[in-house]
Amino acid sequence: MSQHDGIALELRLRPMNMNWQGVMPAITTPFDEKLEVDHTFLARHASWMVDAGCSGIVALGSLGEGATLQEDEKIAVLKTCIGAVGQRVPVVAAISALSTSDAVRLARRAADAGCSGLMVLPPYVYSTDWREMKAHMVAVLRATKLSCMLYNNPIAYRTDFLPEQVAELAAEHENLQAIKESSADVRRLAAIRSLIGTRLALFIGVDDLIVEGIDAGAVGWIAGLVNALPVESVQLFERASRSRRESAFELYRWFLPLLRLDTVTKFVQLIKLVQAEVGMGSPRVRPPRLELAGEEREAALRTIRDCLASRPEMAR
């Protein structure tokens, strides 16, 4: 290998600089008929969303069915995303596990795979006091030099990182640079800002709170319905960010019935069903999840198809 080839290879493998802003899909994990990860589609899906203006890809989260993936499968998903879009936008790995040691190992493997950042979750299943949860988060934050986002979702994970605790972590760990706030309480953004100003990039993690979240200071959106409707998602974010209130609300009002699908227990099945309806994915999920069936599926399809039938011309 020549010196020129070596430099070119190094540049291809070097992670993107982490810039916490914009619309970053919590990408779904596609499965084939055998419920194995469909890497060919995964690469196409990631590229399609980046082509629409998304500023990064977040893999292995709740929407990505990370809890159903083995560790080697997770690393393979990350490598596929990095190979597809990693020289255009940052690829972020969601880090969650049953134990602290497993989370630390996954964080290090994600860094070795070429990820630009980490989205750090509390441990699965076990929820307790601040002393124990802080120790877990600190261990993951210290595991690599990667830029990290704290994920606060007390509704799903029963661990609530209070603004004072967020401020404590931010003061002690330079590589903590963002927070995904999914408490569904927009007041949390103001509370965090009142304590630490702009020290952390504030992201909304609840789809039907994005316009209100931007008004409260959010600079980014870890989004769900973007998996099916990236153009509309990016346009909504940009209009709201530029204070184009009437234009933003016009699109928001149309989008809300779909965005609300991100806030219920079967949000993975629902978002994958929307993907299938727009021709970008399938409804396959891994057990214990099952595909929607019967009246539940028909009701969801009525909502989805009604919205798609009135899809704004400006966003097509």
Task: Provide structural commentary.
The chain has helices at residues 3-13, 39-51, 71-85, 100-113, 130-141, 154-157, 163-172, 187-196, 210-215, 230-241, 245-259, 267-277, 294-309; strands at 22-25, 57-59, 91-95, 117-120, 147-152, 176-181, 201-204, 220-223. Helix 7 (163-172) runs parallel beside helix 8 and helix 10 runs antiparallel to helix 11 (245-259). The chain is globular and about 50 Å long. Mean pLDDT is 94; it is low at 4-12. It is of the alpha/beta class. It has a domain at 12-229: Alpha-Beta Barrel (TIM Barrel), CATH 3.20.20.70. The protein has an eight-stranded parallel sheet. The longest helix has 16 residues, at 294-309. It is 47% helix and 11% strand.
Summarize the structure.
This protein is α/β, with parallel strands linked by helices and 316 residues long. It has 13 helices and eight strands. About 3% of the residues have low confidence.
